[in-house]
Amino acid sequence: MTVFKPFHHYMVSEHGEIVGNHGKLTPAPDKDGYARISLRLEKGKATKIHVHRIVYMAFHGEIPKNMVCCHIDSNIKNNHYTNLRIDTQKGNIRDKLKNGTWQAGNNHPKTIYQDNDILKIQNAIKDNPELQLRHFEEMLKPFPRHLIFDVMRGKRKTREQRINDAERLSI
Questions:
Q1: 14, 64, 87, 162: which has the fewest C-beta neighbours closer than 10 Å?
Q2: Cα separation, 139 vs 111, whole angstroms
Q3: In Å, how far are 124, 145, 146 from 107, measured between CA atoms?
């Protein structure tokens, strides 16, 4: 039997189903794939909120300030209350990096430049340290100037390099 708990004027199931006065509500995915729904919480004003946060609050209580609600198994579709915990944003990112679910570089659905593109630029910079940005721009066509500049300043890295940086910094 499915367990439901109250959340404002709604009922929330242990799996993340939300029921209002007129029946079950249907969430929509946000840009990152997390289920999000619009609820009328305060004075009838609609507020968009992630389903996993609603489930956490209904079953565990408020989420403290500066904390985020995390999926223990890193599966954003699994909104069961036993799969949710709170942590800092850094802790959540650390888990995503460890579990391979951090959407960055080759893993991001909207990525334009692959890790091998970044490596190609890094190698050109390493092999020609005396050259300036304008020379790399000519040498590394068709890569755009902003990408080369970001790689030169260390702002663009491969996924593996970001994971190594995170482990060194112990985030």
A1: 64
A2: 23
A3: 24, 23, 21
Q: Tell me, which fold does domain 4-88 have in CATH?
A: Homing Intron 3 (I-Ppo) Encoded Endonuclease; Chain A (3.90.75)
Is it the case that residue 171 has pLDDT exceeding 50?
no
Local structure of 50: helix, strand or coil? strand
Sorted by sequence, the CB contacts under 8 Å of residue 108 that are 6+ apart come out as none
Across 17-83, the runs of DSSP E, i.e. the strands, are 18-20, 23-25, 28-29, 35-42, 45-50, 68-71
The 8-class DSSP code of residue 142 comes to T
- pLDDT tens for 149-169 read 999 999 888 878 877 777 676
CA distance 109 to 6: 35
Q: Domain-by-domain residue ranges, the chain?
A: 4-88, 105-169
DSSP state of 16: S
